[in-house]
Structure to design on (80 residues):
């Protein structure tokens, strides 16, 4: 799994958990729709820390809370 895959899965899980639409997340975070689509569809190869910060802001959680998931265990990643 890539870091982008883990971020996309975390976004999907948080959207369900918080009963939030992707559109609302885009509005809350300031991430453009096209950029969000690239993350969610796997076209984005890397996700920056800046994007993680914006996503956390959009979900109204801390960056630590966003990353506090088994998806982000280092052994799960294909590192290049």
């Amino acid at each position: 799994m890539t870091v982008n895959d883990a971020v996309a899965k975390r976004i999907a899980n948080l959207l369900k958990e918080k009963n939030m639409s992707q559109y609302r997340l885009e509005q809350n975070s300031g991430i453009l729709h096209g950029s969000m689509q690239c993350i969610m569809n796997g076209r984005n190869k890397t996700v920056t820390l800046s994007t993680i910060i914006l996503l956390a802001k959009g979900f109204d959680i801390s960056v630590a809370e966003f990353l506090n998931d088994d998806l982000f265990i280092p052994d799960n990643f294909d590192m290049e």
